[in-house]
Amino acid sequence: MSAPPTRLPGTDRALAPDLARGAMLALIALAHAQVLTGRGLAPPPGAAPVVDGVTQALLTLLVDSRAYPMFAALFGYGLVQLLRRREPVIGTDGARRLLRRRGLWLVVFGIAHTVLLFTGDILAAYGILAVLLAGMLDGPGRRLLVAASIAAVAGSLAYGAVLAMPDPTDGVDTPADPLTSALIRVAVFPVLTPLNAIMAAAPVLVGVWAARRGVLTDPARHRVLLRRVAVTGIAIAVIGALPQAARTTGLWAPDFSGAFAAGALHTATGYAGGLGYAAAIGLLAAYLTTRSRSGRGTAALVACGRRSLSCYLAQSVAWLLLFEPYLLDLGGTVGPAGASVIGLMVWAITVGVAVLAERAGRPGPAESLLRRLVEPRPDR
Description:
Layout: H1 15-32, H2 50-62, H3 67-116, H4 123-133, H5 141-164, H6 178-212, H7 223-240, H8 242-248, H9 256-288, H10 296-306, H11 308-323, H12 336-359, H13 365-374
């Protein structure tokens, strides 16, 4: 597949953001697949195989609370890209109204996602942030970073408290019928959605800041910044996750205050890790644009990234089929290693379907529906 510098063939889309979204969905799959263990982030039992302990440690160090910040930063980046594409057509005020309308529809998508498929929705939280932040996208860069810093502290403290609490599913039977399961998901939605919005606000704002400078749109020009963020961010994330990894592998059983400190540190350094991953993908994109042709793997990730909403929802369909007791009921039957293999297989299937859609010239169905709902009238 031929690829001109920093762009996707035949489009005005930059390579790095879509490449990052495609790769990011692998991390999301690894994070969500842990529901198959039936323990959430609780440590494996004492007699668990060594491979499960090692896998759980790697998931804590590299995935948990690291995938979502990357997702959020890319969402913020996409808000600015959409604003800039629409401003010449409908003006700044019209573009902001469009972003708010898109945010409201994302909330609707999130509610439907929760009711029908999966507890861990993030679409509604992102929709709320889109509505709230639409007027800040062209604000001073310093203000964006200050707001991101404040939001990072709030998110770290809030999720640190959540991570310090006992696993609420421990010893609780999973509901065996679709209606009860859906009602439970609806009941936790008003709690999880504001929490997810608080957690995501900081990386979304950093993504806005980065998009305004074209950091991923033209990664070759920002190699020095991207290299520093990638190396420093990922290193901080790994080091900061060590106490939490000791908890999730059963090596350390602190009281609430120790668990809260470990969870808050884990979340705070996860922001750095998510940004580091995005920067690393930016560096990869900068390298790929120096080549006359990009490989099939790159094309596949880009196809997935261009349909990230559809692929994200498709993963949730898989978790419903695999986890619910009235369907395949695999919850609690596999350890972290097995869950990770299943998660990557689910992601790989979505990538394969995205490639087929790309070859057929078809957009993702969720993206297409959202576009029609947000912009029901054609451009004039």
